Amino acid sequence: MFKSLILIILFFKFCTSLDTLTTNQSIKDGQSLISKGNNFALGFFSPGNSSYKYLGIWYVKVTPQTVVWVANRNHPIIDSSGVLSINQYGDLVLHDSNSPLLWSTNISVQDQVTTSSVAQLHDSGNLVIVQDNNKKVWQSFDYPTDTQLPNMKLGFNLRTGINMFLTSWKSKDDPGTGNYSHKMNPNGSPQLFLYNGSTPYRRASLSPGNNVSIATSSSGQKFFFVNNQDEISSYYSDDDRSIMTRVVLDNTGLLQKLMWDDGVHQWKEQWSTPKYQCDKYGHCGSYGKCNPDNINRFECMCLPGYEPKSPRDWYLRDGSKGCVRKNSGLSMCKNGEGFVKLEHLKPPDSSIDAVFIGMTMSSSECQQACLTNCSCTAFTSMYTDGKGTGCLAWYGELIDILQYTDVGQELNVRVDATELAKYIRKSKRSLSKKRKLAIGLVSIAVPMFLVSLLAYIWLMKKKKTKGTMKRKVHNQSLNFTGTEGSFEGNELKDSGTHPDLLIFNLSCIVAATENFSPTNKLGQGGFGSVYKGLLSNGQQIAVKRLSKGSRQGIEEFKNEVMLIAKLQHRNLVKLLGCCIQEEEKMLIYEYMPNKSLDSFIFDHTRSSFLNWSKRFEIIIGIARGILYLHQDSRLKIIHRDLKTSNVLLDAEMNPKISDFGMARIFKEGQTQDKTNRVVGTYGYMSPEYVVFGKFSTKSDVFSLGVILLEIVSGKKNSDSYQEHPSLTLIGHVWELWKEDRALDIVDSSIKESCVFEEVLRCIQVGLLCVQEEVVDRPTMLAVHLMLSSERTFPSPKQPAFIFRRPSEKLDSVTGASCSINEVTITKFEAR
Fold this sequence. Notes:
By secondary structure, the protein is α+β, with helices and mostly antiparallel strands. The chain is built from 14 helices and 49 strands. A hairpin with a 3-residue loop joins β12 and β13. α8 (612-632) runs antiparallel to α10 (697-713), α8 runs antiparallel to α13 and α10 (697-713) packs antiparallel against α12 (756-769).
């Protein structure tokens, strides 16, 4: 586990490193230029099994060595040592020991001597030369090799004339310029192409039109496209800068997006292309479109009005010759022709006979403009200058069209009058079928609805008369059935939200708990009492019984029934079912024999049962559970009441997050919500929630930070400290952190077993989680990666709630109703 750390230490021990390179300095073999954040190094390396040496940039903290840029890729240093320096003209130059010039930035005017050039390696991996008051005159990002890093642009700088593109290595042992390249083609609507030599190998979708700057987001990343008078470029950035990513073009022509996983010390693939037949350029030839979803049929189809050029090849599943127009004897010039609209496509290659014929045109105007030109074969409307849509028209072959399922653009294909009439008839038949189907469904649905409504009214009256809820009960085993039923008084409309949620019969629960015997009582909370039970099949359960006088339990009960049954994760407590009968409302959980986490870490006699190894496993388990709630489950869940007493421990001391009564579901794309009813536990709640009622995933991150510090220290956040009685645990740890004495907080019962690097990492992550500003706190994905890795993290900023508030209850802060730790359901002997 210390492999990366040892390699980094050895690297710094045996290599002389510089922060910047000036005119009076040089870098030789065995020396390096290191970025200030220690992310990247510039120096000499030998790739693979090669004996040649090259000047390059690589990741400092990644093993094996991963090179992202090579200066002298086609001019290796052979049987000698290289020297990198800045000459009298301000150029960065590379010589071998025999003095021949191997590589140069070639930026200076040779008759002008300068002494103010400085070379800097930035934490982004960009090597920069600055002159005259930090004026940037050259950067390696303008001359990529096979790797694109975040914020590195591919495309054209129209002011300098520089074309920025990727080229593959010749092989893993030779970084020389290979056969494949990934570059921007500015013709028509700009597109990124993957070339094999000069032959198109793969094409990206059409970019937006002229004079635009577009940003799109996907899975924590942003993708940018810029097209204006200064540049035509495309690049990406990561929301979490602590995660290392790169796009690399390998020597086989595969373009990959990779992310470094510190946990397994490997690059993990996020996507790659070309991966499928339809990814390859022009797979179905001219006027053909490729549909990768045609699993059992040929993936190539001809566009409307076209047929295979070679039916025999088409039958043999070879569509490379493409399609030709049907009825080729008929004129398509002002002879009743029109357009057929196709949706969800990657439109044809716009670098071939495609032109923007209007910058601000409606779709109907675009159609009319194309129709008046007999050479126009298709058109599409595209976003242009921010004022609306423009018209992109094709005047020749339509090639490299891909059919998507639910994304992509529309394409209007020109067809003759005969073909247009066919599509109009087909469209009318389709509408007629849909209309008939709708009428048929309505004629069936209305009578069925009326019958169902009458039956429902009759059943409700029968239930009200009897005063009981109908139950199907299994008489031979556990006396419960599948989900059903509703609360009287409109308290719960549908508890049947999950097929595995069981409805228990009241008599079954009474027998299991020995009529709720006091000897089986595990604890008391704001919801009510919790009892241990034993079913007739020998399974142990925990029964959470809503108190008849409870004011806060109804909403929490409904929330847990409808929410937690949908969640399945090893680090979440499992809800077995519920009981809704007569006046009783109960939740039935799996039984947790080792109680809650706080009963161990805050108990002087029991804390020694949890050594550091087990505590670290518990920390990782809690983080996994929260990550599942925030990102990996079908629903995005904000728990809102994370604390050590809501982390239960099973027989093997594995953590399971419990008590979802206060949890809330976020819709897709939603990042924050607000409530007028602030509920939770003092000491674990984020400042924006306590003061303003605003909550988000970062609220749970704050609570996790408190839990981390409590697990490490064995102290409650609300404890007092002899030196500073007003300090909370957060404030105490923060003071020690600033004095480089953070390890002083470690629980005395684990000092002999702890791994100090892991402990210090947990303290730092905990402080990052409890930072006062929401934007400064990491996401749960970043937290999990930080806990599982050994890389350098950001330094924490000042946390929230450094000093104790005068009251322990939230009411004094917000005036809102609240749940405090002394009245929660997890203060029991066992689960």
